[in-house]
Amino acid sequence: MVMQNASESTPGTASEALQAAATATTTAAAKTAASSQSAAQRGAESAQNDAIKVLNDLQEISFWQIGFVVVGAWLIITLSRRLLPLLAERGPSQFRLYILNTVPIIRLLTLTIAILWVFPIIFNVTLENFLIIAGGASVAIGFAFKDYVSSLIAGIIAVFERPYRPGDWVKIDGDYGEVVSIGMRSLSLVTASDDLITVPHVKIWDQNISNSNDGERTLMCVSNFYLASQQDHAQVRSLLRDVAMTSGYLQYQKPVVVIVTNEPWGTRYQVKAYPFDLRDQFVFISDVTVRGKAALQQHGFEEVVTPAVENQK
């Protein structure tokens, strides 16, 4: 009788054990799922908070590193603006323009590297923050500093397209002079009258820029002579060409041309030649003009004093 009762109680006990094990497994799975969901939610919230945080905490910002970058960039730009022009003036003349042309390139590269270095130190760099900063900055800058930003963009384009370079002689908006420096916003010209003129880069958008030498060591100079029509033009032309060929400032590897044109008041002679160094252009024109007038007077050729008819319409 006892053995029969034991055998009858065994199936019930096994069933209860299986049911308890299933319940425990289900509970553990539910806890695991809830824990995973909670961790995922916390991660999403943390990522969202990191994205919303535009600036890093003050404790995370290395101010000494920012100061080091700013001072280093300032020193590099200042030394390049002062030492390279001195080196260009005292070095071989054939390398002068090449050395001067490196000044704006060094400044642009230095500023770019400094900004890229400092930006992640101050700001929490994420795609969301970048879009927020770029959008806000573009709107603010666009309204407040439209002309200034336009000049900055034009200055960056000028570095690559090179419509003018340090050492070039250019004419912009009626001003003719040598480009002595190129900044991020403007360039500086020194005219023949020793006037310093500041021209914003924005001029390249709507102004014609005449570059006389375009990076070369020399440029064409023109000396004008005005004579009466009843002359031996072939002899005058040969005489003026000889005057230019015997100038001590002439670049002999370049051609010398004398252009003859008829005008209502007489005949115009234009002596076109190249000086050895573009900085001698005005001395070269003066030399050809003075010696040319003396040669014409010596050979008895009559000059027209004032071609007044030329300006009458």
Number of strands: 8
Q: Determine the structural class based on helices, strands and strand pairing.
A: alpha+beta
What is the topology, as strand order, of the major beta sheet? 4-3-2-1-5
End-to-end gap:
144 Å
Mean pLDDT: 78
Which stretches are poorly predicted, pLDDT < 50 over at least 5 residues?
1-9, 309-313
Radius of gyration, in Å, reads 40 Å
Percent of residues in β-strands: 15-25%
> What characterizes the major β-sheet?
5 strands, antiparallel
Overview of the molecule:
The protein is an alpha+beta fold. Among the domains are: 58-144, no CATH class; 169-211, Roll (SH3 type barrels), CATH 2.30.30.60; 221-305, Alpha-Beta Plaits. 56% of the residues lie in helices and 15% in strands. The protein contains eight helices and eight strands. It has helices spanning 2-52, 63-90, 96-122, 127-144, 146-161, 203-206, 233-245, 281-298, and strands at residues 169-172, 175-182, 186-191, 196-200, 209-211, 221-227, 257-263, 266-273. The strands form two sheets. The chain has a five-stranded antiparallel beta sheet. Strand 3 (186-191) and strand 4 (196-200) form a beta hairpin. The longest helix is centred in the N-terminal third of the chain and has 51 residues, at 2-52. The protein is elongated and about 135 Å long. The termini are far apart. The model is unreliable at 1-9 and 309-313 (pLDDT under 50).
